[in-house]
Write a structure and sequence with these properties.
globular; alpha+beta; single chain; 286 residues
């Protein structure tokens, strides 16, 4: 092979290598653009389904209330005035209202199972499409008193139990009162200031949608995706709204103005501190 031919072959191989590198770079750029776009489309579709499911739950709640003096569901309350609550007790108990029921007083998840018991909704509606939960078994639903485990419920409900006489979970609530939402975050004793942005705000949002926000069912029946947990009933000292995942104070307020803006991180001893204080529970991993 002559020197000229060898040089020509080297040029062809070099040119082909450059072409290959160029193709790889173009493909990388296309993937870097397409993959986030595909994830965004999938998440948008899941948010749409989440909104539809909360609307189904809203219809079930309203149907239940229409036959119960317009009160939203709850099971036995504590005999003593208390803001304490529990969850996921007595799953196999056939009568959550009996005095000896294994569904404990002030259980916040058993009222939602009442909607399943009465065939107003299916268990699958209580699983956010963006969460890792699995639908509970609907067989023998009438013989059950509660969801079996936290993985079977990835939404949170405004606790129906409070020692505040004016606190009523019924059709008299203001439009912006949050009845249900994507599962509350486990704040682990970290309060989220109203001014937080980015990662700080994401920690205060539901984990269902990666901390981007939460789909919320309000008392007027509207369902909206809120980018901040400060979307509850507005007050003079909080015109942007109450944090729906915290209580304003540890105990009921004498005056309905809370001195602590971020609110109090909720545990099973803390509930609503005034009549329009949305406290949505249980939180993730409760």
């Amino acid at each position: 092979m002559s020197t000229r031919e060898r040089a020509k072959n080297l040029h062809v191989r070099a040119f082909s290598l450059l072409e290959l590198i160029a193709v790889i770079v173009v493909l990388g750029l296309l993937l870097a653009t397409f993959i986030p776009y595909a994830f965004s489309l999938r998440e948008n579709a899941r948010r749409t389904r989440c909104t539809e499911q909360l609307r189904q739950i809203s219809t079930a709640l309203s149907t239940y209330a229409s036959t119960n003096d317009w009160n939203y569901p709850r099971t036995r309350a504590s005999a003593e005035p208390s803001n304490a609550w529990t969850s996921f007790t007595g799953a196999n108990d056939a009568n959550p209202f009996a005095d000896d029921s294994k569904v404990e007083p002030n259980d916040v998840t058993a009222p939602l199972w009442l909607l399943v018991r009465l065939r107003l909704i299916e268990p699958s509606a209580f699983i956010c499409p963006s969460s890792y939960g699995t639908a509970d078994d609907a067989s023998q639903r009438e013989l059950r008193g509660n969801f079996r485990s936290p993985k079977n419920l990835t939404y949170s409900y405004a606790t129906p139990y409070s020692s505040i006489p004016e606190y009523k979970l019924n059709d008299t609530l203001p439009a912006r009162f949050a009845l249900m939402s994507d599962q509350a975050p486990n704040l682990a004793n970290q309060r989220i200031p109203r001014a937080d942005t980015g990662f700080g705000l994401a920690r205060g949002n539901s984990p269902n949608h990666g901390g981007a926000g939460q789909t919320v069912l309000f008392a007027d029946g509207s369902v909206r995706f809120e980018a901040s947990p400060y979307c509850g009933v507005a007050r003079a000292d909080a015109p942007q709204g109450d944090n729906i995942f915290t209580a304003l104070e540890r105990k009921p307020l004498v005056v309905e103005v809370a001195p602590d803006d971020p609110g109090v991180v909720v545990n099973q001893e803390i509930g609503p501190s005034y009549r329009y204080d949305s406290v949505l529970v249980p939180a993730a991993r409760d």
